[in-house]
Amino acid sequence: MDQSHFSNMFRCKRCNQEFVLYLIKAAGRVLVIKCRCPNHGSKSIKLPLAQKSQYMSDLHSGTFRCYKCGAPAKLDKMKLSGPWTLIRMVCDIHGNKLPVQKISTPIYNEMMAQSIPQKTITTHISPGEKVRVVVDVPSSCPFCKAPINRENVQWSGPMSVKCPYCERSIPAAERHI
Fold it and tell me: Alpha carbon of 92 to those of 17, 23, 96, 98: distances in Å?
């Protein structure tokens, strides 16, 4: 299966609305995903765990959505409970009165690790000499513990990003390559 085939599995066949994922767990060699279309109800999807890199961005996109309307939502609360990461989203329309989503912690960590932002800077020290530097940003905010997503990172300075949840400035680390 290619990535486009997996992407189609995360949409309702009747209305093409992106599913909201509310339970993600590994069961043997498959990943079990319980999801719902805000218009047509719930369903369960089973995908090969060995190919998860092909649909990890779809997992991320479907997780950070409002359970009621399916609109993109922000993380309100996150809690670790045994093997699970429990998250609650906040929606501009429905607020934080949404059910808790339950995600296997290793899957949640992998999903968030793939969204770690990086930028590369080339610096000239003297004429003809170049040093390449990678700026690494943490995968979560050190203040509110919210995940930081590569797709919506906002740089607040040359070496810092703004947390999309608590809006504090987070220092980035510099690494020479």
Answer: 18, 22, 9, 12
Q: Which residue range(s) make up the domain with 97?
A: 3-113
Q: How far apart are CA 25 and CA 33, in angstroms?
A: 7
- The answer on 34 and 105 residing in a single domain is yes
User: Do residues 23 and 104 both lie within one domain?
Assistant: yes
Q: How far apart are CA 14 and CA 6, in angstroms?
A: 17
pLDDT of residue 117: 47
Q: Does one domain contain both 81 and 18? A: yes
Rounded to the nearest 10 degrees, how much is the dihedral formed by the CA atoms of 46, 51, 56, 59?
Answer: 0
pLDDT of residue 1: 47
Report CA-CA distances (Å) from 121 to 57, 103, 113, 128, 170. 26, 35, 21, 16, 18
Q: What is the C-alpha separation between 67 and 105, in angstroms, rounded? A: 20
Both 92 and 164 in one domain: the answer is no
Whole-number Å distance between alpha carbons of 162 and 96: 22
CA 98 to CA 68: how far, in whole Å? 7
**Residues 136 and 60 placed together within one structural domain of the fold:** no
Query: What residues does 82 pair with on adjacent strands?
Result: none
Task: Give long-range contacts, CB 8 A cutoff, 24+ apart: 120-124.
Answer: 120/177, 121/158
Q: Is the whole-model pTM more than 0.85?
A: no
Total domain count, the chain: 2
